[in-house]
């Protein structure tokens, strides 16, 4: 008898979760153990349920400080990093609406084993779940080379985190508080960001983020 695969679904849209829930459970070999609608709940539910595979959206509320907050790609990435820091053997498959750079490379760097877009066919999701569960890696067709020329690929993980927060319109003081850094350190990272991206203002930074689909317009 084929071993069943337990899954934690993470997406802030109930209808999306319902659709994927039906698709996954109809297969018969996959069981949805739980559903989360923000990054904080995803981390907590992972620790409680210990599913075989986490299917993770990127653009979702953080759920921090008692409120959902705005949906951000940074929240999804941070959820992956928190789960991986707690359990290096965690199996995370990203299922996102975004296929623009730099997210395929960023999520793999964060520890995810696979990346699909929500435009993928239903059977591709099932194939991806089985492959990452078996210890493999799965990237949707065309994503293996995606992002090689992205200006964000030169950024470190910390620089990318700061980039994402600044792109959401957060102030230096807010970024410093959120990342437990001094404002002086954040200013230094922002200067490095501007130099690497060849820009001179936050407005240009936000423009890049919008163009690459990192923040919603």
Question: What report would you give on this structure?
Answer:
- This protein is an alpha/beta fold and 217 residues long.
- The chain folds into 2 domains: 5-139, Response regulator (Rossmann fold, 3-Layer(aba) Sandwich), CATH 3.40.50; 151-211, Arc Repressor Mutant, subunit A.
- It is 47% helix and 13% strand.
- The chain contains 9 helices and 6 strands; from the N terminus they run E-H-E-H-E-H-E-H-E-H-E-H-H-H-H.
- The protein has helices spanning 14-26, 39-49, 73-86, 103-110, 122-133, 157-167, 172-179, 183-197, 202-211, and strands spanning 5-10, 30-36, 53-56, 92-96, 114-117, 138-139.
- A 6-stranded parallel sheet has the order 2-1-3-4-5-6, sandwiched between helices.
- Helix 2 packs parallel to helix 3 and helix 6 packs across helix 9.
- The longest helix has 15 residues, at 183-197.
- It is elongated and about 55 Å long.
């Amino acid at each position: 008898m084929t071993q069943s695969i337990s899954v934690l679904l993470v997406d802030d849209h109930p209808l999306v979760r319902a659709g994927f829930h039906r698709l996954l459970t109809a297969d018969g070999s996959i069981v949805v153990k739980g559903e989360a609608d923000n990054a904080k709940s995803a981390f907590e539910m992972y620790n409680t349920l210990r599913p075989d595979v986490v299917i993770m959206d990127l653009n979702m509320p953080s759920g921090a400080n008692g409120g959902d907050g705005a949906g951000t790609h940074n929240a999804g990435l941070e959820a992956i990093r928190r789960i991986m820091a707690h359990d290096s053997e965690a199996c995370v498959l990203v299922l996102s609406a975004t296929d623009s750079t730099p997210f395929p490379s960023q999520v793999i760097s964060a520890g995810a084993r696979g990346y699909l877009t929500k435009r993928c066919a239903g059977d591709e999701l099932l194939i991806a779940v089985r492959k990452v569960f078996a210890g493999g890696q799965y990237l949707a067709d065309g994503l293996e080379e995606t992002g090689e020329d992205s200006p964000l690929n030169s950024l470190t993980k910390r620089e990318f985190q700061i980039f994402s927060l600044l792109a959401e319109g957060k102030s230096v003081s807010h970024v410093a508080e959120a990342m437990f850094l001094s404002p002086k350190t954040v200013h230094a990272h922002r200067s490095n960001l501007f130099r690497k991206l060849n820009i001179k203002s936050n407005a240009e930074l936000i423009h890049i983020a919008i163009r690459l689909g990192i923040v919603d317009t």
